[in-house]
Specification:
homodimer, alpha/beta, Rossmann fold, 13 helices, DNA-binding
Chain lengths: 338, 338
DNA sequence: AAAAAGTGTGCAAACGTTCCCAAAAACGTT
DNA sequence: AACGTTTTTGGGAACGTTTGCACACTTTTT
C-alpha cells in the first residue's frame, strides 16, 4: 500500500532511540532492557506499527511466500489441497500464490517461471497431465529452490513427495465393482506418463488378478489432456462402449465427472446400466445421476503434509539429504443403492 | 529465492557502467543511447538477468499484487471469477493473492487485514454472508487502498462495483417456474443483509406480481451462513415443505446445491416433485438429480471487469471521483425435460 | 566567439529493514 | 582507584532498485 504508515525510523525518532534498538526491541531480542522494550512496544501499538514485509524480504532475501501449481482450482480435489496448504502456511506466516496449469505443460512451465521470478521461497506442485520434461524444475531445484511434489509426482527427482495410496484406492474401487458382479470393467485414465496413472493401473490390474479376471488392454483408455477437452472424453467413451463394459473404473476427478457427462450426452440409454467407480473429491457427488462409487483422496491432509515438508526444507539450516515420500490412505465411498 | 542471481550492480560492474545507466537502459529510457542499450540488453539476456521484484517494490512503494476475498474457491462461481481476474492481472503484470472467507465475517476481516499488511496494491472483494459492518474496509479505503467490490456489494460505499443483473436473473428464473405451471414457489436465499439477497428477492417478487400470484413471506427462507452449515439448510427445508411448494427458487450457488442435498437427504420422496431453479455456476449441473434450471452468472467476465476497474484505480494519477457500477447479464439455462 | 540547448552518463540518496561492530553505561572485583 | 565484565545502546552498511541532480561533452543558435 502506498499510504503513509509508521516505520521503525519514525518510532526511533519519536522515542529518541536508534533504529537498531527499536528493531531489536520489536523482535524481542535479549540485548534490550525490559524497560526499553516496553516503551517501544507500547508506542508501536499506539501508532499501529506494521513491519513492512517488503523491506524485510529484501533484507532477509526471502519472501515468506510459497507457490502452488495445481491443475485447476475449480476441481474440488485441488481446492481441498489448497485449503490444507493454507491452513499450515498461514500458521507459519507464509502466504501462498496459486497458479493453475489447466493440465497444460506450457502453462505450467510459464507459471513456475513466473513464480520463481516473483521470489517465492518454495514450490508445491502437482504435474500437469501433459508434462514429461521436468528439466526446468530440476534447474530451479539445483539453483536452490525447495520443491515438494504432491499427487502427481515424478519418479526421478530426489525431494519430498506426498501422494495418496493410489494402488490401494484403485484396488478397492475395482474390487468393489467386481464384488457387485461386474466382470467387464473398463478403465478410463489419465495420460500415460503421470505417476498416478501408473499406480492406479496397477491397482486395477491387481484386483482383476485376485478375482481371476483377464486383463484386456483394449478396455483401458488414456486421456492425454486429463479430461480438459470434452471431445477427448467422448471419443474414449465411444471406443469403449462397443466392448460392452458393465463397469468403469475412472482414475481422476475431472475424468470421472467428464466421463459421466459424456456418457449421458452420447448414450443416455446405457448411462444408468454401467456401474461407475472413480477417483473424485467432488462434494456434490451425492447429487450425481447416475450415482457412483468414489475414491476420495485425503486432499486437505495432503496439502498440510506437503506444506510442512516444504517449510521444513525452506527453513533447514543445512542441506537436506534424506527425502521422504508420504503415502496417505484413500477412502472408498460406496454408491448408494442403484 | 535465496540463490544467487545477477543484479543490476553485477551488470554495471561487468560493463563498466553505473547502476543508474544500466537501470535506465533496461527500462528503455530515452536518455540512454541506442548503443549502450543494446550492450546492456544483450548482456542482461546472456546472464539471464531478472529484476528483483522485492527491491523494486520497496523503492516504488507498491507490490504489483492484488488481493482477492472470495467465499470459497471450491465454489465454481468464485473459481470462475478468479480465472477472470487472473487473465487480466497476469497481462498487466500483477499477481494475485487469494483468500477465502468461508462466509465468515471474522475470517474475512482477518484476511483483509493480513492482505493489507502484505502490502497489496488493491483489493477485490465479495462480502461474506455474515458481514454487516464494513467500517474496517472504509478505514483502509480512506487510507488509500483501492477497493472494488464484486457480486456482493455494500450500498453505502462509493467505489467501483461489478454485479450481475440479479433482478433480471431472478425474475427470469421465477417466471420460468411459473410458466411451467408452478404456483406455490418458495424462495430460499442468503442472509438478509447481502445486496444479492435484496435484489434477487425483488426479481422474485416482480415475477409473482406479473402473474398475479400472491407473495407469501413465509415462503421465503433466509440462511445466515449462506449454506455453509448443512443443519441450517435442513432446517429451512423442513420449515418449507409443510407449505407444500411446487417450486423453489434458490438464490445462490452454495445454497442451490446444499438445498438439493438437504431435500434428497431428508425427503427423498418429494425431491423429484418440486421444480427447482437456482443461481449456480456449477459446471456439473448436468449431472444433478433432480435436475434444475439454473441462473448462470457471467463469472469470468465479472472477474475481468472488476480487475480492470481496480487496476485503473491503482494506476490513476489523480484521485477518482466518478465511480461506476457495472451490471452484467445472467443466463438462464433451462432444466432438461423432467 | 560566446551562449544556449541537447545528449549521455554517473553520483548518491532513498525505500524500511536487519545485523555486525563498536561504544557507552552500569556494575563488580581487586 | 583502577581495572575487567556485563548489559544496553547507537552508527552505519547492506539488501537491489529507481531517480533527481550534476556534470561533461556535442551540437546548435545568436
Amino acid at each position: 500500500m502506498r499510504f503513509e504508515t509508521s516505520t521503525i525510523k519514525d518510532i526511533a525518532k519519536a522515542l529518541g532511540l536508534s533504529t537498531s534498538t527499536v528493531s531489536r526491541a520489536l523482535r524481542d531480542r535479549y540485548e534490550i532492557s525490559e524497560e526499553t522494550k516496553k516503551l517501544v512496544l507500547a508506542y508501536a501499538e499506539k501508532v499501529n506499527y506494521r513491519a513492512n514485509p517488503i523491506a524485510r524480504s529484501l533484507k532477509e532475501r526471502r519472501s515468506y511466500s510459497i507457490g502452488i501449481i495445481a491443475s485447476e482450482i475449480a476441481n474440488n480435489f485441488f481446492s481441498q489441497v489448497i485449503n490444507g496448504i493454507e491452513s499450515i502456511a498461514y500458521d507459519k506466516d507464509y502466504h501462498v500464490i496459486i497458479s493453475q496449469s489447466h493440465e497444460s505443460y506450457k502453462q505450467e512451465k510459464l507459471n513456475v517461471e513466473h513464480l520463481a521470478s516473483r521470489s517465492i521461497d518454495g514450490l508445491l506442485i502437482a504435474l500437469s497431465s501433459e508434462t514429461q520434461d521436468i528439466d526446468y524444475l530440476r534447474d530451479l531445484y539445483t539453483k536452490g529452490l525447495p520443491i515438494v511434489f504432491f499427487d502427481r509426482v515424478p519418479e526421478d527427482f530426489e525431494t519430498h513427495k506426498v501422494i495418496a495410496n493410489n494402488f490401494k484406492g484403485s484396488f478397492d474401487a475395482t474390487e468393489h465393482l467386481i464384488l457387485s458382479g461386474k466382470r467387464t470393467i473398463a478403465h478410463l485414465t489419465n495420460s500415460e506418463n503421470l505417476s498416478i496413472t501408473k499406480e492406479r493401473l496397477k491397482g486395477y490390474k491387481a484386483a482383476l488378478v485376485k478375482y481371476h479376471i483377464e486383463f484386456r488392454p483394449e478396455l483401458v483408455k488414456y486421456c492425454q489432456h486429463g479430461g480438459m477437452h470434452s471431445a477427448e472424453l467422448e471419443q474414449a467413451v465411444k471406443e469403449l462402449l462397443p466392448l460392452q463394459p458393465d463397469g468403469i473404473f475412472i482414475s481422476s476427478d475431472r475424468l470421472t465427472t467428464g466421463c459421466i457427462m459424456a456418457l449421458k450426452k452420447t448414450n443416455p440409454e446405457v448411462a444408468h446400466k454401467i456401474a461407475i467407480a472413480g477417483f473424485t473429491n467432488s462434494n456434490l457427488v451425492e447429487l450425481f445421476s447416475p450415482s457412483l462409487t468414489s475414491v476420495k483422496q485425503p486432499a486437505f491432509e495432503m496439502g498440510q503434509v506437503a506444506t510442512e515438508l516444504l517449510i521444513s526444507m525452506i527453513e533447514a539450516k543445512r542441506p537436506i539429504t534424506e527425502f521422504e515420500t508420504r503415502i496417505l490412505d484413500t477412502e472408498l465411498v460406496k454408491m448408494p443403492k442403484h
